[in-house]
Amino acid sequence: MKTTLVLSVVLAAVAAKFCPGERNGNECRAGDNAYKCSVFFENLTPRRKLTWIGALPDALKKAKNKAEAKEILGADVTEESFNNFPGCQASAANARCYTTLNKQRSVPLDSCDRNLINTSGSETIGDYLCKQVRRWKKNDSDFKANGIKNLKLPFYYSACNGPWEPVTNSGSDLYADEDLCCNP
Description:
By secondary structure, this protein is an alpha+beta fold. The protein contains 7 helices and 8 strands; from the N terminus they run αββααααααββββββ. 36% of the residues lie in helices and 21% in strands. β6 (168-169) and β7 form a beta hairpin.
């Protein structure tokens, strides 16, 4: 019985995907001649340094209203702009993601303004993210007792099948200006 339990836990850990669209262990990285910009929870669980929140251009595909997405991000940020990256230079992907995400990092987590996560403005970014945290931590006794405080939200990029790397500016990693705090 013990062996079956241990094996089940190991298989569950191996089967856990890095991101919802992961295929063959690709961690939802950018494909050939493409780049992606992403945001993660940092150290949400002991087993993962990074826990997926979402990425561009993936979020653009899910946007209900393309005009609103364009208004939030800018007219030059399109699905096509992410998928036309023939130079595959990491520094260029970093710079593009910095330019796009630096505008988003200072949006307050308690804002109901339209944003990438909530294009209708119907809930705050913080409320949306805390729902995800609760889903990940639903069986965590410490979270159930205390919630979570000071959860960092780092920004990363991937270029041309490359690994996720921190978005940086002058050697400093880019994070959302506010840390996330969630009640149980």
